[in-house]
Fold this protein.
Amino acid sequence: MKNNKFSVPISMTAALIGMIACAVSCAKKNNGPESPLPPPSEPLPTNSVADNTTNTAPATNSPAISTETPATTNAPVATTTTPEITNPPPAVTTTKAPETTSLTDTNLPGHTVVVQMPTNAPVAPTNFYPPVVTTNSGSLQPMADESCTNFFFRFRAGYEHVYHGDNNDTYTLGAKFYAYGDGLRDNVGKNGWLIPDADAELYSEYVPKPDADRHPGSDSGLRFRADFTWPWVHWTTLMFANSNSVCPFCKPLTMGLGPTVNLGFDHLYNETDFRFARYAGLRLTFNRSGFIEYTVGDTDGLGGTRQQVIAEIPFYESRDGEVRYYLRGLWNHGSSARPDILEGGLFLEMPFSTIVTPSKWGDFVPFTK
C-alpha cells in the first residue's frame, strides 16, 4: 500500500517536469536567431537603367543602352512593397517653340475681337482716286507724294465714218492732253469740289460743213475740244472684276458722275473761218479711261440749239495700261430740218514714246499675253 501512495505523486511530478521542459524548449526555438538571407544578386553593369541617375560616362565596351528594364531573375521578389523607380525619364533635348500667335489673331476658331469705335466720326477723303504720276512713257504710276497733279500726253489714231447728209470715211490723227486735279483738290481742302479734271484734244478728221454751204455735208478739217469735268459722285462695282484680264470693263470699275463743259472750234481746211462750239451737260466716267456724256449747246454755222451725245468705250488695254483700243461715237441733233451729225469709229491711244520703242510694239496686238 505504501508503494501505491508514492507512485502517484512521482508520476505527477514527472509529468509536470516534462511539460516544463517542453515549454522551455519551445520558447528557445521562438527566441532563436533568424535564418540568414540569401546572398545579394550580382551588381548591374554601369550602363544599366539603374545607374542613369549618375553622370558617370558609360564604358566604351558596354552594350548599347536599352530602353527596356533588365530582367532580375536572381533578385528576391518583394511581397509587401513596390520597388522604388530610381531611373528618371530622359531629359528633353528639344526646346519648345514659343507661341507666336497674338491675342488679336482673328483666324483662331471661336476668337472674337472687340473693335472700339473712334470717338470722332471718320472724314471722307477729298481725293477719291489714288495719287498717280506719269513716267516718261506717259503711263500712270502710283506715287507717295499726294500733292502732285497729273499731266500727260497721248497719241490718237483711228478710222471713222462720218454722216451729215452724206457718207464719208476718214482717217483720224491727233493728240490728247490729260490733266487730273487730284493734287490740287488735296491742297485746297474743303474747296476741292471746285477743281475739275480736264482734257484737250486736237485732231484732223472730217467735220460737218455749215448749213449755209452750197454743198452740205462734211469735209476734211481740224477740230479742237477742251473738256472740264467735276467728278462729284463716285462709286465702285466689282461685278465683272478679273484682275488678270486685258479688258478694262473686266476689272473693278470706279465710276464718277458730275457736270461737264465742252469748248472748242471746227475748221475746214478749204475755208478761213473758225466756227466755235460750246456745250454743257453731264458726264459718266469709267476708271477715267472711258465715258458717256450728254450735253446741250450750239456750234457756229449749225442752226438752232443742239443736243449731243458722245461715248468712248475702251475694249482693250495693255497690261501696263499704256496702249488702249476704244470705240468712239457721236450723235449731234439740231432743231432745224438739217440732218443730224453721226460719227463712229475705232481708235488707238498710246504714249508717244511707244512709237519709238520696238520692245513695246507687241502691245499693239489686242488680247495677247
